[in-house]
Amino acid sequence: MNRRNFFAGAATAVAATTVSRVSMAALPEPVSQGSTATAPPLVPPNGRPYNPVVTLNGWTLPWRMNAGVKEFHLVAEPVVREMAPGFKVNMWGYNGQSPGPTIEVVEGDRLRIFVTNRLPEHTTVHWHGQRLPNGMDGVGGITQPHIPPGKTFVYEFTARRPGTFMYHPHADEMVQMAMGMMGFWVTHPKESHPLIEPVQRDFCFLLGSFDVEPGSATPKVNTMTDFNIWSFNSRVFPAIDTLNVRKGDRVRIRVGNLTMTNHPIHIHGHEFEVTGTDGGPVPRTARWPEVSVDIAVGQMRQMEFIADEEGDWSLHCHKAHHTMGPMGHDVPTMIGVDHKGVAEKIRKLVPDYMVMGDKGMADMGEMEMPIPDNTVPMMTGTGPFGSAEMGGMFTLLKVRRDQKPGDYRDPGWFKHPPGTVAREVPNANVPPATRKETPAPSMKNSSPDATVRKPSGSGAHNH
Q: What backbone phi and psi angles, to 5 degrees, belong to 63?
């Protein structure tokens, strides 16, 4: 399937209004990326220096300098995102991916951002959280005309304050954002900042939610609450890369939320402080230690901590069903119900039939149950001790003392020192717990726990 025209007629619509090569010659060459791997940090080749970020399972958009102005070129287009091996989803995004590439600039930079529309409908780009001229805010019909298919518009403004932001359409946004149109934006401080500390590792990613029916490949854009695919930067565990750091590093993790619900992001093994929001750096007197932070819709949260505990530490959304793959929310609970053999008989008639286990859902993480083509398993991923029984918004923070500075490669599984792994207690013959049964009180002659006094007469009320 051609990723640029999976909607019927899209190719014809775009070809009819394609920007001519002559006019495109004045624009920066659009850069496209198809890889789902985490790209190394883009060290700035020119302009003001800064400490670059690493986009989880993503990359940073290159730019060109033109008479002191940083010029970027975003291309809004249909894309195919591989959310996990063998699971590809038709999306809309930027420069070959969804989310689009991260844009990194420095406070005070003068910017010129060309946006070419290769979608089958009009679009705009809103620079979420930025201070800029009203006509550059990207709200179609309000602050600017819509960008028609095949046309290129240009946005020009100055990056006025450091912080972490996002970009997304403000045109048919229910459809376009449901299809994955969003990206990260980082404005680095131009000089030492009293509220922004230098860090050795700086990661960023966007939270994503999609409704993709098993066996299909295109999100249902009208869904408001009943999503079934939850992702970090449009990847689902175990296809999400790990965050690999050196013991003692100061680590910053920037997370943005453009889904339709909040996400409590939890990190194991470390306490952190929220040091920034999309409103800017948090004053030191307003920070406190945390292990989870709730990121509401349209918000960004910036967490910082010292990675001083070695190990493979989980990093995930704490809404339990967000660390799973696609499942129906109307699946009945079968705990305690003996249905041995029944599921197999039903599956002979309905090949895609799945049912919850009679002891819980843990067995489903290891069972090779038949699923439709182009469907991500509900719970998958394995570790050194067996099935992880996780999916969706889940990854690992890997802290190693021998991880070299600037080395982002996965160090493999943690080698636990002897005696530091939870283990079985041998010959532990624990007798069954005894419970004293307390008879339920009789309701016939029992005294009420509370006495209700009914008012009589009119009292102070007039009728």
A: -140, 175
How far apart are the C-alpha atoms of 185 and 203, rounded to whole Å? Answer: 12
- What's the angle, vertex CA 421, arms to CA 419 and CA 427, rounded to 5? 80
Query: In the structure encoding, which two tokens stand for residue 450, read together?
Result: 């509370």
* DSSP state, residue 446: P
Give the span between the Cα atoms of 102 and 422, in whole angstroms: 40
Q: Could you tell me the CA-to-CA distances from 268 to 271, 323, 380 in Å, in that order?
A: 8, 15, 20
In a 13 Å sphere around the CA of 212, the CA atoms on its Cβ side amount to 31
- Give the HSE-up count for residue 317: Cα atoms under 13 Å, Cβ half-sphere: 28
Q: Among candidates 164, 34, 13, 14, which has minimal Cα distance to 98?
A: 34
Tokens of 103: 């844009």
Among 154, 250, 207, 187, CA closest to 48: 187
Cα Dmax for the chain: 94
Q: Note the pLDDT tens digit of each residue in 305-356.
A: 999 999 999 999 999 889 887 655 555 555 556 666 666 676 666 555 555 5
| Residue 238 backbone class (left: φ over 0; alpha: ψ -120 to 50; beta: rest) | alpha
Write out pLDDT tens, residues 20-45: 444 455 899 999 998 999 999 999 99
Measuring CA to CA, how many Å separate 379 from each of 127, 136, 322, 342? 36, 43, 11, 22
Query: What does each C-alpha distance from 162 to 27, 104, 187, 191, 398 come to in angstroms?
Result: 27, 11, 5, 10, 28
In whole angstroms, what is the distance from residue 117 CA to residue 345 CA? 51
d(CA 243, CA 328): 31
pTM of the model: 0.82
Tokens for 327? 């499942």
423/147 Cα distance (integer angstroms): 61
Distance CA 228, CA 259 (A): 12
Rg over alpha carbons for the chain, rounded to the nearest Å, is 27
Closest of 375, 172, 180, 319 to residue 259, by C-alpha:
180
**Cα 93 from Cα 167, distance rounded (Å):** 11
> Could you give the 3-state DSSP secondary structure of residue 367?
coil
Residue 133 has a CB neighbour count (10 Å cut-off) of 11
Question: What distance in Å separates the CA atoms of residue 387 and residue 408, rounded to the nearest whole number?
Answer: 25
Q: What residues are paired with 130 via a beta bridge?
A: none
Residues β-bridged to residue 310: none
Short-list 197, 326, 211, 198, CA closest to 260: 211
